[in-house]
Amino acid sequence: MGASRVLKIIIMFFDLDVPYPANDREGGTSASSSLGAAHNVAQSARKLGYHGIAYNVVMPLKTALNKPCDIKIIDTASSLVALTTHLKSSTPSQFHQLTRLTVIADESAINIHLTSNNQNLLSYDLISVIPTTEKMLSHACSNYECDIISLDMSVRMPFYLKPSTLNMAVQRGVFFEIGYGSAVRDTTARRNLIGNAANLIRATRGQNIIVSSNAACAMDLRAPYDVINLCTLFGLDGAAGKRAISAHPRAVVYHAATRRQTFKGFAAVEAGVALARNEEWVVGCLDVADGTQKRGQDADEEMEG
Predict the structure, then answer these.
(1) CB atoms within 10 A of CB 70
(2) Residue 259, domain CATH
(3) Total count of domains within the chain
(4) Which of 106, 121, 140, 240 qualifies as a cystine partner to 144, CB 3.0-4.6 A?
(5) What pTM does this model have?
């Protein structure tokens, strides 16, 4: 008689947009108070059940190409754990911190290339783009070497979201981000968010969607299952909403790791290329990078074998 074995699939939630310095995207508050706000958001995310966050700094593309990452990962000793553990074996007590750069791509940047061979860009874990015009959206979907395309959902969209354009990004493994933070603070922003997010989901057929907080302060952050419920207002069912804050952010991290280890789509050929110790855990994203729509649809189920 063989003993039965139960494999518990641990669902892991991520918020890939914690502003850094928090509450200071336009340079109004002091660095110390902003860092304190980021600290509070990180602590709140962990308490609410998130397993990792990305500190996100926003700047124009021209500036980003000449400025290395200066984000300081917050060390809170017993509460935050460094990125040293394989993602598959992570437990709720472990908390991962990433660095993210979001570049603002306007018409002045049309001739500037966003490529992975820029050392300043490589100093960040994740790269995302905010296109300000339809032309720049098309450029980002087809050419930019990024992991996330982020659209301001709090205002009326200044251009139409064409499925053919967005599909170019989907085919390249790039994800689209819905940020809910501003909608927490403003009724008009909330109305715009629901309409814009629904349009994005229709245009992408629900593929490659992540949902992030863009939480300027801890009060803007919502618990994972509250975010999943919010996703139903956008047109995502419960399983798709769960993927938008779990499997899909993990796939974003794997996409970023692949981008950093390759150049223009050709795999690095060096034998024995190893990840840094603080990057080893991203290998666990392999199981969601290929076919995320088919996997992890019910990550808290148990499989018996």
Answers:
(1) 9
(2) 3.20.20.140
(3) 1
(4) 140
(5) 0.79
